[in-house]
Amino acid sequence: VSENQDLKDSIKPQKVEFHSLNLNSTLHWQPGRAREARDTVYFVQYKVYGQSTWQNKDECWGIQHHVCDLTNETSDIQEPYYGRVKAVSAGTYSDWSLSCRFTPWRETVIGPPMVTVAHSNKSIIIKLQAPRSPYKRKRGNMIPMTSYYDLLYQVFIMNNLLDEQHRVLVYEGKDRVIEIEDLRPGVSYCIMAKTYVPMLDRSSAYSSRQCTML
């Protein structure tokens, strides 16, 4: 019996956790401490906090991967969820490994906006587009993250002659089109932007640099 218990313990999945970007939420885990046998497969269940019954995730039932997409199952983004995983190898089932509680609205990482830059004589026109969520409206178009969060845009400008560190915040607000005026002709300027969620006091990473020469 103890030998079987050892095997059960050694194949039990480790580090079961949710990763989430723009509400695309996946459950990740690592194999147990036994060298993973070729025949090891995994079974995933999920539930809303407070519910007594676990739901099977059919697409992640008997899989060999170490990741399972639970975006659709966690679409009520204010609800807290749990995921759990068990392994089976050589006919032996491990116990379930449980994730921490996961609330998509609070814990998802919000990405930077898409930035498009155009210029005229002495000004730069910046267009910003919020990241999209994975969820669709009834008409079929994707719901932007601004439908779920009160997002602000932070826009930074760099004079390309200076080094990366001299980023100047030139705008913070909700406008999606911004004009920066009175810039020097013949100088190359680079723009980067972040999304900022005041309620969570959290900023995204920087967008990729968009540069233009006046």
From TrEMBL:
Every Fibronectin type-III domain range: 12-107
InterPro entries hit by this protein: FN3_dom, FN3_sf, Ig-like_fold, Interferon/interleukin_rcp_dom, Type-II_Cytokine-TF_Rcpt
UniProt keyword annotations, A-Z: Disulfide bond, Receptor, Repeat, Secreted, Signal
Main location as per UniProt: secreted
MF GO annotations: cytokine receptor activity
Residue ranges crossing the lipid bilayer per the database entry: none
GO cellular component: extracellular region; plasma membrane
Record's keyword annotation contains Disulfide bond: yes
Compartments it resides in: Secreted
Pfam family of the protein (one): Tissue_fac
Family statement drawn from the similarity comment of this UniProt entry: Belongs to the type II cytokine receptor family.
Known function: Receptor for IL22. Binds to IL22, prevents interaction with the functional IL-22R complex and blocks the activity of IL22 (in vitro). May play an important role as an IL22 antagonist in the regulation of inflammatory responses.
Full protein name: Interleukin-22 receptor subunit alpha-2
UniProt source species: Zapornia atra
Gene: Il22ra2
